[in-house]
Amino acid sequence: MIDIVVPLEQEGTTAVVRSWLKRIGDVVAEHDPLVELETDKVTQEVASPAAGILEEILLDSDAEAVPGAVLGRLRDAAASPDRDAAAVPDRPAAPGFVQSGEAVAAPPALSPAVRSGVRRHGLDPATLTGSGRGGRITLDDVQRAAAGRVVVEEEQTPGVGMGAPAAVPMGRPGPDAVAPAPTAAGVTAIPHDRMRRAIAQNMLHSVTTAPHVTAVFEADFSAVQAHRRRHKPLLERDGVNLTITAYLVAACVAAMRAVPTINSRWHDDRLDVLDDVNIGVGIDLGGKGLVVPVLHRSQDLSLAGIAERLQDLTGRARSNRLGPADVRGGTFTISNHGVSGSLFAAPIIISQPQSAILGVGRLEKRVIVRDVDGTDTIQIRPMCYVSLTVDHRVVDGHGTNAWLTAFVDTVEGWSS
């Protein structure tokens, strides 16, 4: 028997089994994906350590998977000469599929947790669209479908008047269905998915660990926009999109040189100031949560290199192809909340164990006063508010303002 174990290194506070990609009795090759693990940051696959037959599943869907735990076991096919390694136990045909002499593609198997959720909410799996690999239905898909089926409406009983509001499930409940918790009229109950619960836990941990203080500056992006207009077409020839975010990352690197203690980690007995500037950039997944891939060793990258790395990480984040290494080891984070419209947000919660986070508001044209040859002039410039939220144990107001000064000076002094 060969153990299938949880990797010793993972990114995220906890990991759970999301779904098994093989069933007991399936023949697998070495390095075949066997099971998906999900943390609060990424989903990763555990590959088969050897060729064989899946004999046992010890940790099923939604089970906590600590590093080194045994997920299941393989039986070495070579060690069982009396059994045909290619043989797979007969299984009943899936509902709606007819067995015949021709091969018929079966739908992706449902994990036990998904089967339980489908029964509990009275859902027909054939009506669900799976978001997992290969179209598999996940527990999050079930929860979203269940939330969308509950309609709260007023019932009117003839001759009596308006009745009490009732939660009406659309469709026939299964035998194990559990009635949803009662809700008030006009209230839609949306179950928390795993990512939202993990984000909530991380945010609460951060604000109870570090005293957050926020300072706000205003930055003029005229020089950045002029530089971008000149150089963006050149990079596009190489397939690289030069975004404003690339300039933000480069300006952060410059500010770290002015105030290195911002790039640090607090310990009870010391402050570790880090040489590598590993900048995480928050990427919204369109209502599915937030992920923060990391640009490692940003201090060694040119502006074009930063833009190329950002493009790669953003594309893989939105297609759920980030690996654990892509979100590991961040020393500082940028939250570009202005892309969704906000001018200013505070405090932006620090990603522990980092010491600070930059917030960037919406870039918009504003009327400002500028001195031209000793005369005040009114001008229209592309401006935005930038904020630095710090762990006040690490740095005081002077250091915070010094970092923001260096950041703004870099943005406003960008040369062609």
How many domains is the backbone divided into? 2
At the fourth CATH level, what is the homologous superfamily of the largest domain?
Chloramphenicol acetyltransferase-like domain
CATH structural architecture of the largest domain: 2-Layer Sandwich
- Counting DSSP E segments of at least 2 residues, the number of strands comes to 20
Helix content: 10-25%
The level-1 CATH class of the largest domain: Alpha Beta
The ordered H/E elements are EEEEEEEHHEEHEHHEEEEEEHEEEEH
The DSSP helix count reads 7
> What is the name of the CATH topology of the largest domain?
Chloramphenicol Acetyltransferase
The helix/strand class is: alpha+beta
Describe the global form.
elongated
